[in-house]
Amino acid sequence: MIRVLLADDQTLVRAAFAMLVESAGDMEVVGQAGTGAEAVALARSERADLVVMDIRMPELDGIEATRLIAADEDMAGVKVLVLTTYDTDDHIVEALRAGASGFLVKDTRPADLLAAIRTVAAGESLLSPGPTARLIARFLSTPGLPRTAGGPDDLTDRERQVLRLVARGLNNTEIAESLGLSPLTAKTHVSRIMGKLAARDRAQLVIVAYESGLVTPGAPE
């Protein structure tokens, strides 16, 4: 069973998400939080596998709550799936930098939310090709945003090719098809890149790719 914690300051939203999660046969709701501080405390006490985290919450916002969860060694296995309004939410990149494994828009279809929970709980990042790349590129071009350390300088030419495709939102199978590799080889490349760049997951690889200039907004696919 996937142990899910729901963090949102709107009671009705939490209740709706809880009903949906409980309707799935492979997951259960282990807690509900109305503030970021409650989310951090419950993630620790309930040993949740995944937190569905709203960004805008009182006391402690979802970004800081995500950062605290990701930085706590006792919660190393806890994944965070961030909720955003997409076009109006200017904090999604900071949430990814803080350690979130992906994001969803709040009006996503119920089946897509359940699929996203399974994907992130399994250790993958939820990065859709077009919207994710455009969103990240948009905010990385905004003056004043802090930059992460590290970059692709130590990667091989093949690894840089793979990183570019990761930044476009391709999964391992699609990367393999694009480069004429086996899926296992593509997966191995991605794992090595994450190790070299000390990246938590694919979401952080996307950030590095854009910040380093390896991938640029508006560049051809």
Please give a handful of descriptors for the protein shown.
Rossmann fold; five-stranded parallel beta sheet; alpha/beta; 221 residues; globular
The strands making up the biggest β-sheet line up spatially as 2-1-3-4-5
Oligomer: single chain
Strand percentage: 5-15%
CATH architecture of the largest domain: 3-Layer(aba) Sandwich
- Residue stretches low in confidence (pLDDT < 50, at least 5 long) are none
Name the CATH homologous superfamily of the largest domain.
Response regulator
- Mean pLDDT value: 83
What is the CA-atom radius of gyration, in angstroms? 17 Å
Q: Roughly how many Å apart are the termini?
A: 38 Å
How many E strands?
A: 5
Q: Provide the helix percentage.
A: 40-55%
Q: What's the CATH class label of the largest domain? A: Alpha Beta
Q: Choose one word for the global shape.
A: globular
Structural class estimated from helices and strands: alpha/beta
| The CATH topology of the largest domain | Rossmann fold
The number of helical elements comes to 10
Question: What can be said about the biggest beta sheet?
Answer: 5 strands, parallel
> Helices and strands, in N-to-C order?
EHEHEHEHEHHHHHH
Total discrete domains: 2
